[in-house]
Design a protein that fits this description.
Largest sheet: 3 strands, antiparallel
Number of helices: 3
Order of helices and strands: HHHEEE
Shape: elongated
Distance between the termini: 76 Å
Structural class: alpha+beta
Number of strands: 3
Strand order of the largest sheet: 1-2-3
Helix content: 40-55%
Strand content: 15-25%
Radius of gyration: 28 Å
Length: 131
């Protein structure tokens, strides 16, 4: 009987003292590292998209000197040079008149190489009307 009571005490103690095993820790750290690597590869693409979107919104909102599509393209190229936007050029912009102003838009596909021959395609699209 004593052995049985002692065994229950040992089992309860081991149950309470459970923790993370070395294997579990390595697996969790591996998953965290993989997620961080994906993030480090993808964040620059989203930052560049946000910069391009801000540029077309500012050009459409400003309205001064951008009365023709050629002027809009020239202003975008100037902003792209300053803001280091390399994925699209002024010639890639879709410009249309809407009411009293212009709606400027773009769409492009970005390939982000992950490792070896594996990559990720991301489709970006924006316009100054907010759609």
């Amino acid at each position: 009987m004593r052995d049985r009571a002692a065994w229950k005490t040992v089992r309860k103690t081991t149950w309470k003292n459970r923790g993370v095993t070395l294997t579990g820790l390595i697996m969790v750290l591996f998953a965290v590292v993989v997620l961080l690597l994906f993030g480090m590869k993808l964040i620059p693409a989203y930052i560049e998209y946000g910069t391009a979107k801000k540029a077309i919104s500012a050009i459409a909102r400003d309205g001064t000197g951008a009365s023709t599509p050629q002027e809009v393209r020239r202003q975008f190229d100037a902003r792209a040079l300053i803001d280091n936007i390399e994925v699209i050029k002024g010639t890639d912009l879709e410009i249309r008149k809407e009411g009293a102003g212009m709606v400027i838009g773009f769409a492009y596909r970005k390939e982000v190489p992950l490792f070896a021959n594996v990559g990720l395609y991301i489709d970006f699209a924006a316009n100054s009307a907010g759609q």
